[in-house]
Amino acid sequence: MAIRLTDVANEAGVSLATASRVLNGSARKPAPEISDKVRAAAEKLGYFPNAQAQALARASTKLVGLVVRDIADPYFSTIARGVQRGLGDSGTQVLLASTDSDPTREIEAVRAFMSQRTDAIILSGSRGMSEDEQLLRLIESYQENGGQVVVIGQPLATTGGIQIDNAKTSENLAGELIRAGHRSFVVLSGDRNLLTSADRANGFLTKLKRTGLSAVDVIHGAFSREGAYMAMSDFLASHAAEISNQQLCVFCVSDVMALGALRAIRERGLRVPEDIAVVGFDDIPTLEDVIPSISTAHLPLEEIGRWAGEMVLSHGDARKMVVTGTPVLRESTEFFTRLP
C-alpha cells in the first residue's frame, strides 16, 4: 500500500498541513525541530512528495473560503464580519458559501473552494451526530496539498479552530435561571441530529437533573425560527394547565428559536415574562431591538470570527481554542410570583 502524507503526519505527531509545508516546498516553514521530525518520519516510512502538491503548497491565491449554515442568520453573519476583521489589511479576500443545513451543499462548497485553490477554508456551522466520511476525505486531500482548514463550532480530527463548549455553557445558563427562582422548564431542543442542538439541550437538562429538577417537556423540531414557532404553538395549544399553574421558563437552544417562540406566545395572548419566561442562546445583535430584552448565553461571535481569520494568517493549523459562553439574564426571565 502506498504511503500517504497522512501516514507521515501521524508518525511525526503533527497536522496534515504542517507535514505538507515541510515536504511540499511551502514558503511557510514550521519550526526547525518540527521540520526535522517530519522529514525523519517521511524517511522512515519511505514517503515521496507529490510534485503537484509541491506546486500548490508554494502558491498563494489570497483567497479564503467561508462556509456557513445560513448567512441570513445573525449568528453566522456576525461571525463572517469577524472573519473579515481578523484578515484585516492582509489583502486576503473572503469567498462565502451558505449551505442551508444541507450536508451535500457543504461538500459542494468545499469542492468549489478547493477548485479555486483557496489558501484556507473556514467551516462554521453545526456538525451532524456522525462525521461525514466524504467531507473528511476532502479535507484530508485539501490539507495534503497545502490547504489550511479552520473549524468554528465542533472540531474535526485533523483540523484546528475554535470549539464552542455548548454543553458547559448551557449548564451555567440553567444554573443562573435556577438561582433566579425558576423551577419549571420547557426545552425547545431543535434538531436532535445536530451536535449543537444536542449539546445545548443535554447540558441544560444535566444541570436540572443535578439540582433535582426535570423538564416539563423536551420538544424536538427544526433548528430555526419557524421550527420553534411551530413547536411552541403546539405546546401552548396542548398544555394550558401547565401554563396557568406554573411559571414556565422556555429554554430555546438558539436566539433565533427564542424569537420564534416569542411570536407564538404573543399570538396566544400570553405575556413575557409575566405568563411565561423565554431564554435563548448566542446573544445575536438582533436581541438589542427586542422587547422585552431576551435572556441568553453570550458568545463573543464577532471575536470568534476574528480569531478564525487570525488563525488563517498565522497558519495555526493544529491550534485549538475552547470558548465557553456567559449567562446573561434580562427582562424575558424576570420572575413574577403568581397571586393566589
Give structural notes:
The chain has 13 helices and 12 strands. The protein is an alpha/beta fold and 340 residues long. Among the domains are: 1-57, lambda repressor-like DNA-binding domains (434 Repressor (Amino-terminal Domain), Orthogonal Bundle); 166-298 and 327-333, Response regulator (Rossmann fold, 3-Layer(aba) Sandwich). The strands form 3 sheets. A 6-stranded parallel sheet has the order 2-1-3-4-5-11, sandwiched between helices. The protein has a 4-stranded parallel sheet with strand order 7-6-8-9, with helices on both faces. The chain is elongated and about 70 Å long. The model has no long low-confidence stretch (mean pLDDT 87).
